[in-house]
Structure formats: C-alpha cells, structure tokens
Design brief:
The chain is α+β, with helices and mostly antiparallel strands. The protein folds into three domains: 59 residues, lambda repressor-like DNA-binding domains (434 Repressor (Amino-terminal Domain), Orthogonal Bundle); 236 residues, no CATH class; 74 residues, no CATH class. The protein is 48% helix and 6% strand. It contains 17 helices and six strands. The chain has a four-stranded mixed sheet with strand order 1-4-5-3, sandwiched between helices. Strands 2-6 form a two-stranded antiparallel sheet. Belongs to the short-chain fatty acyl-CoA assimilation regulator (ScfR) family. InterPro entries: Cro/C1-type_HTH, IrrE_HExxH, Lambda_DNA-bd_dom_sf, Rad_response_metalloprotease. This is XRE family transcriptional regulator.
Length: 402
Amino acid sequence: MSRGITEFQPERLSQILSARRLSQVQLATMVGISPATVSKWRSGVQAPESDALERLAQVVNVSPEWFTRPTLSIGSTPLFRSNASAHVAARQMLEARLEWAQDVTYSLSEFVDFPALNLPERAFVDPEQISNADIELAAAECRKIWNLGRQAIPDLALAVENAGIILVREETGIAPIEGLSAWSTALSRPIILLSADKGNAFRSRFDLAHELGHLVLHKHIPRATERDRHNQMEKQAHRFAGAFLLPAEGFANDIRTPISLDSLLLLKQRWGVSVAAIIMRLNALGLIDEEAKLSLFKRRSARWGAKSEPGDEARNPECPRLLRRTVELLVSSGTMPLNGVARHIGLSARDIEMIAGLPAYYLDGAAEVHDLAKLRSTLAKFGGDTSPSGDSKILPFGRRGN
C-alpha cells in the first residue's frame, strides 16, 4: 500500500460492501471519493488516510478500528436453504452476516466457554454416497446423543444451542433464502443463520432441522454449483429434517387411519411440524403411497392454498438464547460495561443486537435491563418460574481461566 492506514484490511471493505449491499460507486458517493479510490482500497493497492477512514466508518456504521482487524475466514463454504432462486448479491450479504456472527461469537469466547460441540460424525465426501438409510440413522443418532427420546422436541432452538451450535435468527429482507449454515474453523463449531422474515414457527423449526441436516451430512462436501447436485443435497437435508423432527417409531404410533387433513392438523400442533412436512414424512416412511400423498396435497391446496395452513399463528417462533445470554452475563457480572460491548466487537450496536437477538437499543442502555439474580429471587418469592424469560433453563457457561 502506498499511503494511509497501514493496518487497513481490504477484506473488511469487501465484507462491508456485501453486508450493506452497496456497490463501489454507491460507497464512493457516500464517502465523497472516486470509485477508483474505493477500487484501490479494495484491492490493497492503496489504503485510506485517517480522515477518509473516519468518513468511511461513519457511512457504513462500524468503528474505524474495525477496518484494521483481520477477517476470520469461514472454514466451509456456506450451504444455503433454497439458494437457487436468490440473487448473487443476496447470498453474498447473508454470507457476510454469517461472518459477522462468527466475529461476535469469537469476541465473546474470550470471556466464556460455550457448550461443548455434540454432533454425529459423518465422513461423506459426495452426496451420491448418502442413502436414505444413512439419513435415518444420522437423525436417530442425533436425537440419541441429545437425549431427545422419540417424542416431539419442545424447543429445537434450545436443543441446537445446547449442542454447541451457534444460532442466529434475524430479519434479512431476503424471502427466498430461509437459512444458511457453515462450519467455522476459528470457532471449531458450526453456525446457522435463519431468516425471521416470514415469522412462521413451523417453517422455522423445519428450516433449522434442515440446516442441521446439512451440517451433519454434508460437512465434508463442497457447496454444489450444479443444479442437480444442489437439489440432491437439499432433498437429503429435507429427509434429515423430517426424520429428526418426526422419528419413525414415535411418530408412527400417533398415526390413525383413515388419514384426513383435520387429523394432520392435530399432529401439526403436537409435533410442531407443518401438515405439508407431515405428508412428506408419511410417504417417506411408507405409511402412504405416492398416490395418497398427491391426493392429500391437492386437498390441502384446494382447502387452504399453497402458502399457509390453519394454526400457523398458534406457536411463536423459537428464538436463539446463547449469544443474547452471553452478552447479558458479561454485562450483569461487570465483566464488560454495557457501552463497551460494541467497542470490543467493533461492529455497530444495532448489528450486534440483531445478531445476538438483543432488544433494540439494549447496548445504548435504552432497553429495559434486569439483574438476573434479583429477577430470579423476586419471581421465586411470588412462586413464579425462576428461569430467565420463563421458557427454559439457563445455558451453562464457564468463565475461562486466565
């Protein structure tokens, strides 16, 4: 680099362009420089001087110092849920958000130990190696090592995080992509990012199980560029999701004949899985044949339409807790001041709040903040649930030794 801040990391500039969905020309206009200068910064030929770096950081809403931090590369190429119909720029934006989730997690891991990773190991290097029997066995093993039994999973997000997977759920503005996942070398654990745009709890649970399938089955398989190969991997992740959410033995015991849409609606609420996914699982298990499957789908479409089902609003989407409670723990314990979180990570407070699932303006001190110890004792006094939010146990954290 010929001039400017010598520690400037060009990869950060590429990352911010993707995350903010900006072109070089748009960024140049916002900063008040030429597009050629942005191109030189991005290629590493030239670096911004301090005043230009300040303007750059201000318009993209990160700290100037953030541009001097080396990037942490994602170890595996992210696998997208339904990526075939999405624009390249949309996928790049979500990849950047996934990288930021990695940055947030890595920064927080300096202070806490996250739950140990607990996933089945598979060594497939080609989707052609994976049979339906392999998928059923992998899903069953995952349930076994997570102690989930054969019944409906009360909270899949909690189960996933307790297994050491980093989970982010946020509004992305990109409806065609429901989720993506990747293995992080820096964290030695995987990350899943789910879209919260549709707000359908049943779809979200299936999307999460689908990404879990990719992580278990396709860890050593590169992202497919050919449509047929991509579709094959998507079908395998779909099969895993069905097998994981609706285990053969437990689910089959709940089936009563003749099968009707009304009976499937009852199963939907019990198992937390859409009627459409239940129909596919019934067919996969051989409980209905192809003709019966098509008949049920036609009746479903005629009765309810293709995009929604009765009872979709009966369940709230499951929300991640791990990153949110990590930040709350660091703040409530005095390990990190509230206004120091964004400074430590380098991203804007708003981005951190979205990635960690924190309330809006929490890091500004504008959101309501409870001391968890006082909250628990107060609730106990009145005989209430003493777990934060009253919805689950506290995730185990252990402070790292110095």
